[in-house]
Amino acid sequence: MDDQVALQQGLLTRMESLRARVDRRLAELAPAHGTAPDRLVEAVRYSLLAPGKRFRPMLTLLAAEAFGASDGAALDAACAFEMIHAASLILDDLPAMDDAGLRRGLPTIHRAFDEATAILAGVGLLNQAYAVIAADKGLSGELRAEVCARAAEAVGFMGLVAGQARDLLDRDQLRDMSQIDRLNHEKTGVLIIAAAQVGALIGGADEAAVEQVGEFARRVGLAFQIRDDLIDAEGSVEAAGKDTGKDAAMTTAVSRLGVSGARAAMEEHLAAAENALAAAGGGGLLGAYAGRLFAGRKAAA
Amino acid sequence: MDDQVALQQGLLTRMESLRARVDRRLAELAPAHGTAPDRLVEAVRYSLLAPGKRFRPMLTLLAAEAFGASDGAALDAACAFEMIHAASLILDDLPAMDDAGLRRGLPTIHRAFDEATAILAGVGLLNQAYAVIAADKGLSGELRAEVCARAAEAVGFMGLVAGQARDLLDRDQLRDMSQIDRLNHEKTGVLIIAAAQVGALIGGADEAAVEQVGEFARRVGLAFQIRDDLIDAEGSVEAAGKDTGKDAAMTTAVSRLGVSGARAAMEEHLAAAENALAAAGGGGLLGAYAGRLFAGRKAAA
Predict the structure, then answer these.
(1) What is the DSSP letter of A102?
(2) Angle at Cα B237 formed by Cα B233 and Cα B243, nearest 5°?
(3) DSSP A219-247
(4) Which domains does chain A have, with CATH numbers?
(5) Which residue from A289, B35, B266, B270 has the least number of CB within 10 angstroms?
(6) Considering CB atoms only, which of B124, B152, B161 is closest to A36?
(7) What is the pLDDT of residues B217-261, one digit of tens each?
(8) Contacts for A122 with CB less than 8 Å, ≥ 6 apart
(9) DSSP letter at B228?
(10) What are phi and psi of B265, to 5 degrees?
(11) 3-class DSSP state for residue B102?
């Protein structure tokens, strides 16, 4: 039991060290003063470097490690996925979109700066993700192009952009579970899947394993979304670090299934994630990481 | 003289055929109904497929041809640069930016549709450019990554995004010529340069020739910007197909140099462009194309 505690402690230390490494690299890859106008640089850094879980880059790094990538090989690609995620948060929060006031515990970027700066920061960050991937000399040209392609598919007209458009267009309509799943998939799932799959690719995983890693990430992402819904339904603004209760008009998993039904669905996704990871032949720290994310789930729900 | 006329006619026919080819390919590469929500798909197609000069893709195609690229090898990369250009127009026109009402002779996308759809269309189109480049199996992985890198550099915090931010931030200040040149470079030049250089790269040009092609495009772009300023200062909305007189509060080349001074600067850029193209060892249809663009310049000024 002491061994078990020590093992858990070791995993936590290692994860925290990886996350700190992502933060340091993000600070290096973000635009610096002297390039773009100061106000834009400040806005980008304000948004990108705000404390966060770094969920997507952690998936990339841990999936790469699970398949034997050399140390640091996936770091820039991992950061690119965090840039895309930060860009999508900025753009989704805009007055013309969700008109959110708080994000990651701070005023949203269009409130802290202004709307034009927010739009340019979002677009610039998305673009910077491709700049970082394309310039990643640690990867072969073929692999850089493949990572760009997977990221672009996740962002585009079958991913984040489509999901946000769909969310805005049918926000007032009653949604059934398949529509909720589709929306979650586009708005959240596709990027999480791509982040993990890119890590596996960089680690040299074969096609079947990459698919299974994608399924692992998809299930973890769905579980995570439900966990967010649970927090949103019951949590406070302080705990969530963003506006809560905003989804009340939407039809979320919680409002359809109730709290206990949503919790059961979350558990089902987590079990399926474990199975997929086992089938991929990966695991190790990646599986432990997913487990950690939901360690407090009983308290949260 | 009849030979000369026939030659000119042949060039015109060939250019028009290339432009039509770009238009057809753009229609194929644009998102189709059944992927993203219909409203977003319509907005993207409305903007991307509106009639235009296709200046950037023509530079890519003709630069590729000048260095011996096989037929069609640069077509998708060329279309990607038009997507980036269309995205930048959508975003620059937004209410939070230039708040423009007319573009390419049509209501701007946020007026014809709505602001959220316009933002998503702009972001989606930018992203689609990277999707198209990354998936271009006619190019090696190395070349796809290089094209992505050059495009991303042109868009990002040292290019279009920086230029738009700078334009908004110091719009009310008096600008000197070096500031005007820098702004033009970021807002227009960098993308034009990248479009031409990518064509030369796909054609197999060496580094020195790629640089010269960039200088050719830079000079043509500067001349073109002055031509736009001249039209803006004197032309009508009908002729320009977009809001005119909007730059009156800005300090443009025309307002600083006067009409005849601006014309002289334009001619100087065009002469330098010819020299750069000669030094690159390229030319042919690319030089003829640049000449055609300014064929009516005496009338315009």
Answers:
(1) E
(2) 80
(3) HHHHHHHHHHHHHHHH--HHHHSS--STT
(4) 2-300 (1.10.600.10)
(5) B35
(6) B161
(7) 999 988 888 888 888 887 655 555 665 555 444 567 788 788 999
(8) A87, A88, A90, A91, A94, A109, B123
(9) H
(10) -65, -40
(11) strand
